[in-house]
Amino acid sequence: MTRQDLDSSFGFLLHDIARLMRKRFDQRARGLGLTRSQWQVLAHLARHEGISQAGLADIIEIKPITLGRLIDRMAEAGWVERRAHHSDRRVRQLYLTVKAEPVFARMRALADETRAEALAGLSPDERERLTATLVGIRSNLSDRNPPGNGTTPMAEKPAAGKPAAEKHASGKTVSNKALGGHGGNARQ
Asked: Are 18 and 11 in contact (CB under 8 A)?
């Protein structure tokens, strides 16, 4: 692989785009008074409220003890709270507080601005296809779809006589996998 090939390599390109989007978001978010780690916690908690500290550490890819200290500081600031699990007293579930809601709303607005900048020049159809493709790739690689579990990867052709996609009630074309595939939750 040549150096020029790296610039168009799928993995390198995807990683570089994610890095540039994080950097641009960081530039916009400076005024919120949050570190990158803190806004990542808020974003993931908004998506997975009630998750355990260990589960959140796994998603964010940091050590549980490191996350514990971060959550301590965020709880002291009033942004997150720990609640006892209903059936396992050893587990503490994490939730956003009311105080975090306006900060999260501002984060969403900054994320929307960053996304609009990143997708400038793409038509709405191109944006939708890009998102659908990325959701499919994530599904192929996610823990919900480990190698060898018998599910059909996105790139494989559907069974004979079965269409690859169908019209959903919304009028949008949706893959059969999304209509009833492995049951994963494909949030954007």
From this structure: no
Listed in sequence order, the DSSP H helices in 61-181 are: 64-76, 100-118, 124-141, 176-180
Domain 3-118 has CATH 1.10.10.10: yes
Distance CA 57, CA 55 (A): 5
Burial 113-129 (b: 16+ CB within 10 A, else e): ebeeeeeeeeeeeeeee
Distance, CA of 175 to CA of 136 (rounded, Å): 9
What is the rounded radius of gyration, in angstroms, for the C-alpha atoms of the chain? Answer: 20
pLDDT one-digit tens code per residue, 34-92 = 888 888 899 999 999 999 999 999 999 999 999 999 999 999 999 999 999 899 888 89
**pLDDT for 132 beyond 90:** yes
